[in-house]
Design a protein that fits this description.
Blueprint lengths: L7 E3 L14 E4 L2 E7 L2 E2 L4 E2 L3 H17 L8 E8 L2 H15 L8 E5 L9 E8 L4
Parallel strand pairs: 6-7
Antiparallel strand pairs: 1-2, 2-3, 3-8, 4-5, 6-8
Helix pairs in contact: 1-2
Length: 134
């Protein structure tokens, strides 16, 4: 769906189903903005078990949306990560990012500890990707 100014909302095949009044992502010009993704298995829309597995799944959910617009993890220009326990989860986030970005370079990232996330989850990631249309 397009806005009057050319912003297109995204809902690619293989992505999770939104749980409310929000879109999975949007394309505006040469940039793709991915909403906060959690470690939900798109096959059953349930949270994945295990801390590291859930964090990895959230990144993969973000990647599905970016790839639908011809962008990959190396095209990520900004990440925002939300965790409910910085001490326990930050090392796991770093480990998963190191694996997914194969040792770097890594996109700019902000990681914030929050009191709570939707469905009592402990991790969420949102990203912005550069994906030129031409």
């Amino acid at each position: 769906m397009y806005s009057g100014r050319g912003v297109r909302t995204l809902a690619p095949k293989g992505a999770i189903a939104p749980t409310g009044t929000w879109s999975l992502g949007a394309r505006a010009g040469d940039f793709v903005f991915v909403a906060g993704m959690r470690g939900i298995n798109p096959a059953n829309n349930r949270l994945v078990e295990g801390d590291e597995a859930r964090i990895r799944q959230a990144f993969m959910n973000m990647k599905v949306i970016a790839e639908a617009e011809a962008a990959g993890l190396p095209d990520c220009v900004r990440l925002t990560v939300f965790v409910t326990d910085m001490g326990r989860l930050r090392p796991l986030v770093n480990k998963v990012q190191e694996e997914l970005w194969t040792g770097g370079p890594y996109p700019p990232r902000t990681i914030v500890e929050v009191a709570a996330l939707n469905q009592d989850d402990f991790f969420e990631v949102e990203g912005t990707f550069y994906a030129p249309k031409n």
